[in-house]
Design brief:
Order of helices and strands: EHEHHEHHEEHHEEEH
Largest sheet: 6 strands, mixed
Structural class: alpha/beta
Helix content: 25-40%
């Protein structure tokens, strides 16, 4: 059975104090789809403990039922640094604005992602979570994303969300500045991209498409 390590944000507020966290759908929909496909999923977070959920992503009653197993995993997560890349076949980071704060500046997380990448294992993220790559450079100073094709939450989507001034940086702009080949669909339309072992998606609407690419890559 192939094993996937999920790493979720532990950060629960934006620059002005607005509550945030993981965007629930970007975590729960892939979790549910990949679990149903027979993958072994371990849910961790940056700091461990209860994962904050962005209030704007609160589930409907139908989603609560559909995602019950995934939601139950959020209460007492182990920290990501209690695991080793050798134990898993893929790493997946769902988004939410929280990821823009505690992932781009976490060197231990970067080292873990580099371990997955060096082994040719799947590195995947969606929406704001590709922000983690915005802080990653190798020993020679070369950005992780340089020359790699990816998708992420777009600057125009951030503007529509009213959060341009409320995040440390704009994900699309940062990744382009680092040399990424950024692909996008129209705002709020699904877009998932695979470049070798790197799988990324644009927005919440892309989470199931990202899960499908992970499933395909691990098949």
């Amino acid at each position: 059975m192939k094993k996937i390590l999920f790493v979720l944000t532990s950060h629960n507020y934006m620059l002005d104090g607005t509550p945030t966290g993981v965007w629930l759908e970007e975590y729960a929909a892939p979790y549910t789809l990949l679990k149903q496909a027979g993958f072994d999923i371990t849910v961790s977070s940056v700091a461990g403990g209860t994962v904050p959920v962005d209030p704007n992503s609160a589930p409907t009653d139908e989603q609560k039922s559909l995602w019950a197993d995934a939601i139950a995993e959020l209460d007492n997560t182990p920290p990501f640094d209690s695991f080793d890349a050798a134990e898993f076949d893929a790493i997946y980071m769902p988004g939410g604005h929280g990821t823009s704060f505690d992932m781009p500046f976490n060197k231990k997380l970067h080292e873990l992602i580099y371990s997955f990448d060096a082994a040719g294992k799947i590195v995947s993220s969606v929406c704001h979570a590709p922000a983690v790559f915005g802080g990653m450079r190798d020993a020679d100073g070369v950005p992780f994303v340089k020359g790699r094709t990816l998708a992420s939450f777009t600057d125009s989507e951030e503007a529509q969300a009213g959060a341009t001034e409320n995040v440390p940086f704009l994900v699309e702009s940062r990744l382009k500045d680092l040399g990424a080949i950024h692909q996008r669909a129209d705002d709020w339309q699904p877009k998932a991209v695979r470049d070798g072992n790197l799988i990324t998606g644009q927005n919440p609407q892309s989470s199931e498409a990202v899960a499908a690419l992970i499933k395909e890559a691990l098949a």
